Structures are given as structure tokens and as C-alpha cells.
Amino acid sequence: MSKKPCIAVDAMGGDHGPEVIVPGAIQAARTKNLSVVLVGDEGKIKNILGQENIKGLSIDICPASEVVGMEEKPSEVLRKRKDSSIQKAFLLARKGKVDGVVSAGNSGATLACGMFIVGRIKGIERPALASILPTEKKPVILIDVGANVDCKPIHLLQFGLMAEIFARDVLKIKEPKIGLLTIGEEEGKGNALTKESFNLFKLSSFNFIGNVEGRDIFTGNVDVIVCDGFVGNVALKLMEGLANSLTKILKQEVKKSLLAQIGFLLGRRALKNFSRKIDYAEYGGAPLLGLKKIALVCHGSSNSKAIKNAVLMAASFVRNKANLHLEEGLSMHREISLLSKKALENNTQQTKIK
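The line above is the sequence of Phosphate acyltransferase; the predicted C-alpha cells follow.
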């Protein structure tokens, strides 16, 4: 394994394929402090590389003859797509030839390959997708945003643990504040899942501030917001749609009058900074926490900028030894990872988690 981070990139994933993925990976490789392995159709990848100046860059190719469609079932991918780019990328990780994987392809297949090929960190029942979002003050981590649609309270508690360690040791946030996303701030608000999860978080040693509502996500008053993957994915897609619509509405309004166009020109720098902050491409992708190797899942419609930033983020996780910190954090909270779901949930009223 190279001393500098080596990241495998699923060159065939996403809506746009290698024409967008490969240039993004090249941009990341130009930082000169990481290596990239492009996994996919060797002919197509070489053709794109031939159009770029890659002299001096650490870029290799791992051939893969199959491409996973965005609608394919994860179970089918595992059984029938043995030579797919996403499977081969994770196989490289399992063999220690790369330190992490980045894919904009089928997220379900990415999760399945991550779990069954490289495996979970001991003590983690379900890996979770953690999205980093901009706020009024500082980034917030929303977890889970789609990996686990149906969850139990113990799963949400583990999501909180993984995100807390990630926020503290990778994002360098001291004593991250953790909130539980539900329909009201008061204790007792929500469905059975959030009510039971609230009790677990309240008894834990986390810096738990209680329930938070959707309107609290962007205030910056909380560092980690925990929810199941169904709620998290709906929230994430709503945010993306709102950001895109606001941008289009603003452009439409600017065109309506000369005064508006003058105002736009005067505030162009501020508007540019605003657009950058709400652009998903700035954060690249969502880390899949809980796997033995670093993995980032990118938006299916990711552009080259998003891929570049996802590769850079994956490399930074490797340098910061994110998984090592997660394993150490789990050892400090052994009751979360080792006690059975039933034992933990049945004893929430009697046992104080240290």
C-alpha cells in the first residue's frame, strides 16, 4: 500500500459515466498527494485519459467488464455482476490495494458490496450514510440519509455514535451536539422509533440536546442530526430540490427588470458565495460510516467537481485515520456495540450507559 492515500473510483457509476467521473478523478490526482485507481471499461478510460494531461500523476486502471444499472437490485448485483466496476473497486479495498472507494453509481449496490465484500467494523450492526450540509454557522452531519429505510432504536444510537466520532476526530468539532430529528422539540414527540430512541440517547454519555425539527437543520445550533434513512433521504432530496429551485427563481426574477440586473451585478460576489455553499458538489459525497474501509457515495448526477471533492474527502479520511478513531470510539462505548438489541432496549429505564 502506498504511503499516500490510494482511492479506487468507480469510473462507470452515475448518470454520466466515465466522461464525467474520469476528469473529476484526474482533477483530484493533480493535488499530487494521492493515488487514484480508475475501475471500469479499460478502453473508454484510456480514451479519456489520452485527452488529458496526466503526466506525473499517479493514476492506474483496473479493468471491469460490467456496469451496474441504477435500477438493479443489490442482491442481483452481488450474485450476477462479479466483474462489475463497483464490485471490483471494493475487492481492491478488501485486498488492501486501495484505501477507499468512491462511487456515484447505484447506492444500494454500493452499500451491499461494501457490507459483503469489505465487511463492517466489529460492533456496527448497520453502516449509515452521513451527509455533510452547510448551515448558518458551520457544517452539520445528517445521518442516515438513505442506507437504512427501516431502523430500530439501537441502530439510531449507533448512527449517533459513528457521527459523533466522525464530527470530533475528522471535522475537529469539540463535544459535538447531537439531536434527534422528529416532529417536535418536546420530549415524547414523534413515532415509536423516535420516542424509544430518545430514551436511549438520553441515557447515553453523548452530548445529546434532545429533539430537533426540520427547521433546525440549517441553524448551526447542532452538529449531528440523527434519523432513519427514510426520513433522512426525503429531507436531503427536499433540500437539493429547494436549492435548485431557488437558484432558478432568482435568475427568473433578475431578468424581469434592469434595476434587478444592476442589483444582481452589485451583489454578484455574495450570490456566488451563497451558491457555492448550497452546492452539493462542494462536499462531493456522503461517507458510508461503519465499513472496514473508507467509502463515499456520490449523487447519481454528480459532475466532475463533485467527484474530485469526493476523492479528496476520501483521501482526507484516510489521512485522519477515520476508521481507527471509529474503532477506538466503539471500544469506549462497548455497551452499545456488544449488548444485544433486546437487552439494551429492555433496560433503558434501569441501566445508565457510561
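Note on the example: Residues 337-345, 347-354 have pLDDT under 50 and may be disordered. The first strand starts at residue 6 and ends at 10.
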